[in-house]
Amino acid sequence: MKLYVQTAGVDNLETLRALLIDAMDELTGSNSQLLEPKLPWDGYLILVADAELHPVLISFDPVNSRSALLNGLQATEQIATALPWVNQVYTVLDKQQRPPRLVVISPDPPPGAAALLAGCPGLKLFSYKILRVSEETGLLLEPVGTDNATSTGMESGTEPPARATTGKQVRGPVALPPLSKEENTYFQQL
């Protein structure tokens, strides 16, 4: 038996959406449940409940990784602010009032992937390729930010940038620098 394996482009977005829904357990964990295959906001979004019944937002874009990330962040914020409504519509979430986790899928990692992953522990990034194996279409998902250097775009042994810390511990509210004259007038006009 011969296998013919070749990479393929995206025929249409619905094919990619169907492949991602089929790969839902690999993206969000086993026993995930599809809540909404197509959200009405900007970008290409899928809403899923993971095995612990927490909402997970899958954002994808077949061309632009930056758009996938930004649209996903915007939709995550919209869902987080509408959690009471979301819990009423999707009763499977069991009214837990948990903000959604974000999974971003694009052909290449978004710019600054290592810094994003270091600053956002709940964020997961995946790159993908569409493969055709003997006339069947499949999806190859590779997590970004793991130990392999090609997924993050960083050289081997390079650590993600760490936040600079001083030896002092800050207690209480942090004092911000005063506003400039232009900033003051701008905020007074609001």
Unreliable segments of 5+ consecutive residues: 148-175
In percent terms, what proportion of residues is strand? Answer: 15-25%
Shape: globular
Rg value? 20 Å
Q: How many domains, in number, for the residues?
A: 1
| Main sheet: strands, sense, barrel | 7 strands, mixed
The averaged pLDDT comes out at 78
Give the tally of β-strands. 7
Number of DSSP helices?
A: 7
Q: Top keywords for this entry?
A:
190 residues; alpha/beta; 7-stranded mixed sheet; 7 strands
Would you summarize the structure shown here?
With 190 residues, this protein is of the alpha/beta class. The protein is built from seven helices and seven strands.
Walk me through this protein's architecture.
It is a single chain. By secondary structure, the chain is of the alpha/beta class. It has helices at about 15-20, 25-30, 65-80, 85-90, 115-120, 150, 180-190; strands spanning about 5-10, 35, 45-50, 55-60, 100-105, 125-135, 135-145. The chain has one domain. Strands 1, 2, 3, 4, 5, 6 and 7 form a seven-stranded mixed sheet that branches. Strand 3 (about 45-50) and strand 4 (about 55-60) form a beta hairpin. The radius of gyration is 20 Å and the shape is globular.
Topology (elements, then pairings):
Blueprint: E1 5-8, H1 13-22, H2 24-28, E2 33-36, E3 44-49, E4 55-60, H3 65-81, H4 83-89, E5 101-106, H5 113-119, E6 123-133, E7 136-144, H6 149-152, H7 181-189
Parallel strand pairs: 4-5, 5-6
Antiparallel strand pairs: 1-6, 2-3, 3-4, 6-7
